[in-house]
Request: fold
Amino acid sequence: MNTGLFISIEGGEGAGKTTLIKGLASQLTELGYQVSTTREPGGIPIAEQIREVILDRSNTAMDGRTEALLYAAARRQHLVEKVMPALEQGHVVLCDRFIDSSLAYQGHARGIGIDEVLAINEFAINGLMPQLTLYLDVRPEIGLRRIQEASGREINRLDLEKASFHEKVREGFILLAKRFSDRIEVIDAERNPEDVLASCLAVIKKHGQEFNQSVSK
Reply:
């Protein structure tokens, strides 16, 4: 039985997910919680190998459905090996991307269909959804500019997509935030990192009673 709290962090390219997760992990650890951080696709060796295939800039011929299936496969293995054990130990799990990325990128932006990609992933996750999702909303032109200005940041196959694709991704996330408003909180991520972190911590505190009941200190 899972006793921890599963929080996913979502957003387009350059939204600041990695920076936010580091800040949240530090703050929550100071409050006495056990925190596990991870990412998708990846987090464990098998999923990291799948990540290399998905994001390899030479794999431009990859079909959209192939891409969706690879993400779902990596997600399943990641859940079994890393997320589920951490939740069973009462950890707060902060995950950089989860199912909503597949729905926004492959389902909406690739035009496969949100419900179609959701069906693939429902099989993969077997009912294990985040209790809370923080969607970092940023206009694509700002996010992509951040990537270009960042030193040492990995430039992957998705970063090279046209601006219109990234606009569709953002559109998809906004649709998901409306559809799953009980789980997804929209955060203005065009502000400085400190303000974004403060807003996200406030959201978690707003879920205070559920948070304290779900997480073992």
The two ends are 16 Å apart (CA to CA). Residues 4 and 87 are 4 Å apart (CA to CA). The beta strands are 5-11, 35-39, 92-96, 132-137, 184-188. The mean pLDDT is 92.
